Amino acid sequence: MTLLKHRLFWPAAALVTLLAVNMIANPSFARISLRDGQLYGALIDILRQSAPLMLVALGMTIVIATRGIDLSVGAIMAVSGAVALTIIDGAGDANSWGTVMLAIGIAVLVALVLGAWNGLLVSVLGIQPIIATLVLMLAGRGAALLITDGFITTVNSSPLSYIASGYLLILPFAFFVWLAAVVVVGLVERRTALGMLTEAVGINPEASRLAGVRSRGIIWTAYILSGVLAGIAGVIYAANIKAADANAAGYLIELYAILAVVLGGTSLMGGKFSIAGTVIGVLTVQALESTILFLGVPPAQSPVFFAVVVVIVVLVQSPRVHRWGRLLGSRFGSSGGDGKMPPVATPEKQKEVVR
Amino acid sequence: MTTDTDVPALVEMRGITIAFPGVLALDGVDFFLRPGEVHSLMGENGAGKSTLIKALTGVYTIDSGTISIAGERRSFESTADAQQAGISTVYQEVNLCTNLSVGENVMLGHEPSGTFGIDWKGVHEAARGHLTSLGLDLDTRSSLQSHSIAIQQLVAIARAMVLDAKVLILDEPTSSLDRGEVEQLFAVIRDLKDKGVAILFVSHFLDQVYEISDRITVLRNGALVGEHLVEDLPRDALVTEMIGRELSDLAALSSVADREIDRSGDPVLRARGLGRKGVLDPADIDAFEGEVVGIAGLLGSGRTELVRLLYGADRADSGTIEIDGQAAKIHSPRQAMAHRMALSSENRRAEGVVADLTVAENMILGLQAQRGWLKPVPKAERDQIVGEYMDALGVRPADPDVPIGNLSGGNQQKVLIARWLATQPELLILDEPTRGIDVGAKADIQRKVAELSAKGLSVIFISSELEEVLRIAQRVVVMRDRRRVGELDSSAVDLDGLIDYIAHAEEGSVSR
Amino acid sequence: MTAVESRPDTTPGVVAKISTFTSRHASVLPTFAAVAILICLLVGAELYFGNFLTPRNMSALLLDNAYLMILAVGMTFVIVTAGIDLSVGSVMAFTGIFGASLLASGVPAWIVVPAMLVAGALIGLLIGVLVQHFDVQPFIASLAGLFLARGLAFVVSLASIRVEDTSLLWLQSTRIRLGDWYVTPTGIIAILTVVVGAVVMHKTRFGRTVYAVGGSEQSARLMGLKVARAKVMVYVISGLCGGLAGLVLTAYSGAGYPRNGIGTELDVIAAVVIGGTLLTGGRGYVLGSMIGVFVYGTIKTIISFMGAEQSWTHIIVGALLLLFIVVQRAIVARSERGS
Question: Is C157 part of the contact surface with chain A (CB cutoff 8 Å)?
Fold first, then answer.
């Protein structure tokens, strides 16, 4: 019963079910083989391919916790990929680790500046997050195209391709990148007080203000973090296709990231966030994507499935459906056994009682 | 004046009961409104005034009881239903669309149409007609936004006239108006009254209630206390009915009001002429070490406004503040906290608790905010603070890891007080800390306040329960109609004296 | 009783006229700013290139941006209610490829065209119902619409489908000439959409309810207006416009293509905002959105005249968008203080 009530139960159950269905339908899905000391298989691919989405969703989780949203992550990915590959392309030796590291460093720095810009608009100028980040969403891809002169810059650089498809020990390097990001962000949020203060700002901005929380700085930090992580994601994406494609890089990723965050149990209304939940959410999205491919559906058609998932998820979270759920529950005499649904009274009524 | 009880009531509400989860907001209340009268509905916060109004306007559906309009039983499913029945409401926060023109706001939903959609000329002509009948000469094509709140309120009344309202509900229409604007509004109200409209009036300003009303109904804690003709209800009787005399076991708490306070040195807090235009007339207040200063006054008297200005939650535009004899600039809660001040807001849910965080997290939030995110309160210290206050205040359930939203109001309040005590303030401001909580929790909180002040903490204590204020505070600052009207030594005054003072002090020079 | 004077125009003369104007029409000012920007762009381009303000060029401006203008009309309805519709580009692509495939399988145009419009409207209805009846944020609900429509476009066909139907191509190929000026039926459709949109917004109770909802949804409800219906309808209208834009774009390009309109939602939102519609709702004009589209189109044309990268368009439009948003924020902040 306590297991059922755990906030990660349903997200984890969804992921496990999805994987189980895949394995039953196609036993080769579960096959993991060891070749030259490296693991291969559909599950390993999911770990590798989820890197960009994982990084973006991680930043999005923190932004959403502040009651915000960052639509510009895809554009930032495009910019950072363009910056990194243009520098590597222009440098003498594309295979030098020094060059690649420097390029990545600069790309991530640019992404940080872009994130700081979003944070400035939201926390200082007080512009609604969705609108503030829309500006960069629109202009960012244009800027990325300018950096690459409107072409798709292709680069053959072994250090770069290692990042996306190389192996460290027996697992893909990209997996370690996102794992490191998850651990670092998790530690910073949960070992310092940042996580709690972020949640406080997201749940009740006014109470936080009266309690002396510096909400401006906290919100700003969230957007900077989101920018930096999107920057790293952009580099990994570019490394994977060995090219900076300003139009395709991070296309619709903001939407998948939001979906992953919501699937992981973090509410779009801000507040309590779960990094572990987001990890599960991303893996679920990635597994769903793989499943759809496995079913032989062309990748371009997969949005239909995701649309259905989005609709189901928002309906499950909708107050009206909760009311129906409670009505059904009371009709069949079960006493509040509707699992994770909190006892929400008609919001209007509840608000009034307070006044 | 047609205020005879013989006149058949236009609105008859009988036995109205509305329950919210955990709260009985209205408990079998009767209310009658007659044509051609101004009837004031009085009561403190949580008395059920707005719930009753919302029952009448179709915002809430009633759980039991009956509503009849002109002798006909009605049940309202929506505000549109109530409007059809001739009931219109003008709210404190004007419920019009400021982005549209004056004329359109008057006529919205009732626009005359021409051959090709809305006839705008007709709209503005009709609107002008309605405004003129209220004695208003406005440019109907101007944006509503370009007019003052007072004018917007009158426009809302004009809109009610378009709907041919027989019943007009004015819910705190005067709270943001100045004296001249109130006169304008009252002129319009009297005019409507003469035309036979039944008017339900709600205001926190006693003077205005006495100026305009024919009849007064008092509610307390969701129940009807009484209905009186205005001339039969002296002010102190009204205040007594509103506040009630809850002679509970609380009286057993040893009174600390007589304790001697050393006021020879610099006070912990000295504010002079602190005010904000339209919010609070400049007011003074001092608090000495170990002293509990009570602020007494009805809801809307300016008591909350005063402490918010002190704490920097709102910006003052006049006045000075000294802390321990040193001039201090307080423009934000952070600055106030740096001066060792703490404010527990009256609005627990909106400005106090962070609902989804745990009890422990809520307790250390203030301390954590002070230290910054890089220095998390160490687990040992946190456990110690949480343990200490859970115990000292008797928080139930005694589990620091449940979300605070799951606690009862009284226990939430204890957690909030703990939040502020953890920051080790020199001055603790408690705004209605005991409102809406059970007697046990109330006693716990009062005891804690007495104990802390005995140890040297200064406390500013606001409560609608005057007995409580008299019992705890050594001095009581009295507020009315957004100004400070005086100060009393609580050992030298009893409850009747205080009620009398709240109702009458400086009568004659009242209002602004 | 004393008559209450509250006319802001008590001072005589020009000052009075200006103050009457601002108290009546403050909300038109951003749209005027857009007109000024458009004129500056056109005049500047003419001075710079010498051959910019030609009838051919100006006629092409309408022709090339007809689909955008139609989408902008629908988006204006949505944004005025303080909502947003991210699905429009995908809906346009879906209805376009849907129509093209129906035509290719021999269905007559008089069935295909209504079918496209209905398809668009249905997706809009889905979004509207989610927003109004299930309290889903417009952004998320229209996101689901975006996914759905884009996916469905690829379900219909993964590649582009040529349109051979003459009646559909007629919409594009016909040039009604007046001297060197010309207009195509697609251009006329766009203009008609703008006119109908403006009339509905300005002259019907539904249109006024849309404004009232954007000004204050709670007030609108307390005033007894049909709020729920209006909120669903604006998304249906936006979807319908998506379907119409799909028709126009298919005629324009002579084919349906499932990748059409990627990122178009952003262009449309930018054009609507530049045209003076407040993203926080309550203010805006369909005609202003038309101006916004012209500003967008002119910038695009200027950039292609200069031979510069088309990506500059997005950067400049993004910068303009930012400028308008900041100015709007300032206006809103001022009016909050004022009242």
Answer: no
| Cβ <8 Å between B373 and A192 | yes
Buried-exposed string B119-128: b where 16+ CB fall within 10 A, e elsewhere: bbeebbebbb
Q: Average pLDDT for residues A169-192, to the nearest whole number? A: 90
- Cis status of the peptide bond prior to B397, with omega within 30 of 0: yes
**Domain extents for chain C?**
29-334
Cβ within 8 Å, pair B136-C6: yes
> Chain B contact for A272, CB < 8 A?
yes
**Would you report the helix, strand and coil content of chain C in percent, each value rounded to 5?**
75, 5, 20
Q: Which residues in chain A have Cβ-Cβ distances shorter than 8 Å to C274? A: none
Say whether A320 and C134 touch across the interface (CB within 8 A): yes
Q: Look at residue A319 in the predicted model and tell me its pLDDT.
A: 72
Residue B2 located in a structural domain: no
Domain that holds residue B235: 11-243
3-state secondary structure of B40: strand
**One domain for residues B458 and B469:** yes
Which CATH number covers residue B491? 3.40.50.300
Pick from B81, B95, B97 the residue to mutate for testing the C interface (most C CBs within 10 Å). Answer: B97
* B476 CA: distance to closest CA in chain A (Å): 25
Question: Does the residue B391 lie in any domain?
Answer: yes
- Chunked into runs of 10 residues, chain B (512 residues) has average pLDDT values of 63 88 80 92 79 87 88 83 85 81 89 84 91 84 83 86 85 75 85 90 84 91 88 84 60 63 87 89 92 86 91 91 91 92 88 90 92 88 91 84 83 90 92 77 83 91 85 90 88 83 62 34
In total, chain B counts a number of residues equal to 512
B140 & B285 share domain: no
Per-residue pLDDT band for A138 (boundaries 50, 70, 90) equals confident
Chain C contact for B137 (CB, 8 A cutoff)? yes
- Which ipTM score applies to this complex? 0.82
DSSP per-residue string spanning B222-260: TEEEEEEEGGG--HHHHHHHHH-----GGGGSPP-TT--
State the chains in contact with C (3 or more Cβ–Cβ pairs under 8 Å). A, B
A343 CB neighbours in chain B (<8 A) are 21
Task: Calculate how close chain C gets to B95, using CA atoms only, in Å.
Answer: 5
Cα B297 from Cα B310, distance rounded (Å): 17
Any chain B CB within 8 A of the CB of A208? yes
- Chain C, 197-256: which have a CB under 8 Å from a chain A CB? none
Residue A20 CB neighbours (<10 A): 12
pLDDT grade for A72, boundaries at 50, 70 and 90: very high
- Mean pLDDT value across residues C250-274: 89
CATH code that applies to domain A2-317: 1.10.3470
Nearest CB among C1, C215, C339 relative to B149 is that of C339
How would you class B235 by CB atoms within 10 Å of its CB: exposed for 0-12, middle for 13-18, buried for 19 or more? Answer: middle
Judgement on whether residues B269 and B234 belong to the same structural domain of the protein: no
* B408 in any annotated domain: yes
Return the axis-axis angle of helices C227-253 and C109-133, rounded to nearest 10°.
Answer: 140
Interchain contact, B25 vs A192, CB within 8 Å: no
- Chain B environment of C17 (Cβ under 8 Å): none
Residue B6 in any domain: the answer is: no
| A344 — pLDDT class (breaks 50, 70, 90) | very low
C135 touches chain A (CB under 8 A): yes
Number of domains in chain B: 3
> Which CATH number describes the domain made up of C29-334?
1.10.3470
Q: Cβ neighbours of residue B146 under 8 Å, at least 6 residues apart?
A: C8, C22, C23, C26, C338
Q: Is residue C22's pLDDT more than 70?
A: no
Residues B58 and B83 in one domain: yes
Strand stretches in B399-466, DSSP E: 427-431, 458-462
Q: Is the pTM of this model over 0.95?
A: no
C262 touches chain A (CB under 8 A): yes
